Amino acid sequence: MSDLVRSDENGIATLTMNRPQVRNALSMEMRHDLDAELVAIEHDPSIRCVVLRGEGEHFMAGGDVKSFMEYAKMPAETRRATFLARVHELHTIMFTIQRMSQPIIASVRGAAAGAGVSFALMCDMVIASEDAFFTLAYTAIGTSPDGSSTYFLPRAVGTKKAMEIALLGDRFTAQEALEMGLINRVVATDDLVEETTKLAGRLAQGPTRAYGNTKRLIRNSFNQSLEAQLQAEAEGFADSAMADDWVEGVTAFNEKRKPVFKGS
Predict the structure, then answer these.
(1) Which pLDDT tens digit goes with each residue over 134-145?
(2) Which of 38, 190, 226, 259 might form a disulfide with 252, Cβ 3.0–4.6 angstroms?
(3) Are 243 and 209 in contact (CB under 8 A)?
(4) Same domain for 121 and 31
(5) Beta strand extents in 91-243 (DSSP E only)
(6) 228 and 164 in a common domain
(7) Structurally, how many domains does the chain consist of?
(8) pLDDT in tens, 79-110
């Protein structure tokens, strides 16, 4: 079976990382499939929300460290070139997640370690079971983080806390992650699938084009001046107003009923 499984239902695409025997550690096949599926979803108007999850008891335990042993005997410069290429292969996945209009939810159970933390942080929202735990863990194998964690982590928790999480590599619970602002919700382990489906269903019924503009505004706000951000807000509002969903939203408001958005 594939290292990544996609299933679509009610406008929700669920991408399941499918290597439970190794806590869904990233394989090259999984990377390539994630890249291809996300690009396909981005351009599929029938998909209104995306869920990223792991098969079995865990979300994702990061890179497949066992496979790194084949590089251990390589000359240092060869290792450098190899991992430079490997890490860059992740970047297209991250850019697609940031660029796509559809909201993407990380549904985390069990371990989110190394790149697992990065993948959760790059999603728009994170819902976690009460038994989930997080650890950046890169320093445990003598390397610095990748996968965008050094971008998103300090923006969520501040520089000092990000340093602590990254340098020490300690494990922290879902409740601690919630209190730090790294995730959105903690639910009972047995309720994770149901609560994820509810959240995804709510987003899948929303105005997708407006969601996309909202995502871009929030993501870009850290690097903008106030003047530039205000201009971007004006352009985002104007673009959203071109959509049928805007007409429906305004009409429903004036008719005092719930809007029925189509994602267009």
Answers:
(1) 999 999 999 999
(2) 259
(3) yes
(4) yes
(5) 104-108, 111-113, 125-129, 133-135, 172-173, 185-187
(6) no
(7) 2
(8) 899 888 888 888 999 999 999 999 999 999 99
CATH number of the domain that residue 22 is part of: 3.90.226.10
Residues 227 and 112 in one domain: no
Q: Is 52 helix (H, G, I), strand (E, B) or coil?
A: strand
Please check whether residues 129 and 189 belong to one and the same domain.
Answer: yes
Q: Are residues 117 and 163 in the same domain?
A: yes
- Has residue 262 been placed in a domain? no
Decide if 167 contacts 92 (C-beta within 8 A): no
Contact 134, 117 (CB under 8 A): yes
Is 60 within 8 Å of 113 (Cβ atoms)? Answer: yes
Q: Cα dist. 177→68, 151, 184, 216, 240 in Å?
A: 29, 17, 9, 24, 33
The answer to whether residue 147 is domain-embedded is yes
- What's the CA gap between 204 and 212, in Å, rounded? 13
Q: Which residues contact 212 (CB under 8 A, 6 or more apart)?
A: 100, 101, 102
Whole-structure pTM value: 0.93
